[in-house]
Amino acid sequence: MAKKNCWEYKDCGRQHGGPKTAELGVCEAATDKRLDSIHGGLNAGRTCWMVAGTLCGGKAQGTFAQKFDNCIECDFYKTVKAEEASNFQMTVFLLKRLNASG
Fold first, then answer.
1. Would residue 65 count as lying in a domain?
2. In a domain, 53, yes or no
3. Dist. CA 29–CA 7, nearest whole Å
4. Residue 1 placed within a domain
5. Domain count, the chain
6. How confident is the model at residue 33 (pLDDT cuts 50, 70, 90)?
7. Do residues 37 and 3 lie in contact, with contact meaning Cβ atoms separated by under 8 Å?
8. Mean pLDDT value of segment 62-77
9. Residue range of the domain that includes 37
10. Which residues contact 61 (CB under 8 A, 6 or more apart)?
């Protein structure tokens, strides 16, 4: 089974060409290339908890520090963590990659 990006899993419609982009814009997870291919995702599609501007409950989330506590309770985060098991990239590694690219 193919690994899903967050916009596929959540069916939010904010991916490139998605039905909600005119209303809500393209999601940062779909455009942020700094975390491309991590956990098998496109751009930050499988690390959405690391980037600002993603939606949760229909509201745009703030910075990583502001949103992370909510994200670790998210069904998508838990799914990625379970699917990746021992290959799950820890937050400190992802933050270093974001800062190095930044």
1. yes
2. yes
3. 8
4. no
5. 1
6. very high
7. no
8. 89
9. 6-101
10. 52, 53, 54, 55, 67, 70, 71
